[in-house]
Q: What sequence folds into this?
């Protein structure tokens, strides 16, 4: 499976014509897989398959509770509801479904998810949705425990008398890029959700044992070692050329494989030589 095989919707595909260009009050649900990058590092193909499986469950439940999937984020969903009650009901059912499925699965086939929900102002552009409702929902999910749901005070005040909730008050929380602290409640949809914390650490497939890096323990090359850093001239030249064209490169590699040395003793001196004025 390729990453592009995960279902994806743009805002233009998911939104009706009447909402484009409008600002409305909406209940936004934001989901995110726990330790997704680490899972991908341990087993990329298997993780993509598991992610597609869980996203399909979430999408089906979103539709059942009269919500609308706005887009995928690769390891989660951004969903829109006109009702805060429906949004919370949907989130609870998502986490319950994940737990129910997990009870019959081996650890390597389980992904845990966090969910954040906020009721706020959002703006629908031609291709996307944005605004405080989206931003706060995204930050709230990061505060949730694996298998948990974090909701804002605004959402809690709307649903507290209409749903039977097991909610814990976490107090005012500082959220990244949000000016004022937001009072937050966390919901555990079922006691069994607590067991999902066991599966937040990725399990490497038995056929692919983790091998120790042969490079660990070696001294990193620093800027002053540039004259002794050799053997990667072609790599460094290619990266310097890419920097000159685009202004940004992404250097990936296993821990201890020498990424820092390439940057410090290779790319930086290479940039200096490339950009040195000729008189």
A:
């Amino acid at each position: 499976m390729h990453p592009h095989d995960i279902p994806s919707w743009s805002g233009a595909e998911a939104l009706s014509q009447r909402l484009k260009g409008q600002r409305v009050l909406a209940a936004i649900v934001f989901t995110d897989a726990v330790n997704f990058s680490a899972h991908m590092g341990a087993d990329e193909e298997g993780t993509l398959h598991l992610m597609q499986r869980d996203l399909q469950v979430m999408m089906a439940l979103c539709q059942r509770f009269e919500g609308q999937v706005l887009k995928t984020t690769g390891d989660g969903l951004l969903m829109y509801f006109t009702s805060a009650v429906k949004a919370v009901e949907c989130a609870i059912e998502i986490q319950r479904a994940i737990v129910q499925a997990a009870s019959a699965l081996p650890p390597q086939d389980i992904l845990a998810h966090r969910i954040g929900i906020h009721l706020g102002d959002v703006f629908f552009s031609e291709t996307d949705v944005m605004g405080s409702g989206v931003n706060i929902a995204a930050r709230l999910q990061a505060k949730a425990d694996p298998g948990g749901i974090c909701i804002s005070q605004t959402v809690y005040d709307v649903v507290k008398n209409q749903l039977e909730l097991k909610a814990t008050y976490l107090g005012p929380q500082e959220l990244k890029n949000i000016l004022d602290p937001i009072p937050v409640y966390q919901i555990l949809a079922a006691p069994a959700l607590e067991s999902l914390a066991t599966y937040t650490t990725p399990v490497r497939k038995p056929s692919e044992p983790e091998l120790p890096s042969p490079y660990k323990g070696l001294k990193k090359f620093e800027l002053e070692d540039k004259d002794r850093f050799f053997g990667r001239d072609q790599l460094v030249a290619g990266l310097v050329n890419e920097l000159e064209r685009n202004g940004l490169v992404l250097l990936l590699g296993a821990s201890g494989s020498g990424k820092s040395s390439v940057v410090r003793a290779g790319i930086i001196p290479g940039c200096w030589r490339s950009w040195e004025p000729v008189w």
